[in-house]
Amino acid sequence: MKVVDFSKTNSILNQYVSEIRNVEVQNDRLRFRRNIERIGEIMAYEMSKEFTYSVKNIRTPLGIAPVSTPDNQLVISTILRAGLPFHQGFLSYFDGAENAFVSAYRKYKDTLKFDIHIEYIASPRIDDKTLIITDPMLATGSSMELSYQAMLTKGHPAEIHVASIIASQQAIDHIKNIFPENKTTIWCAAIDPEINEHSYIVPGLGDAGDLAYGEKE
Ligand SMILES: O=P(O)(O)OC[C@H]1O[C@H](OP(=O)(O)OP(=O)(O)O)[C@H](O)[C@@H]1O
Ligand SMILES: O=c1cc[nH]c(=O)[nH]1
Ligand SMILES: [Mg+2]
Question: Where does the Phosphoribosyltransferase domain start and stop, copy by copy (predicted)?
Answer without folding.
Answer: 11-214
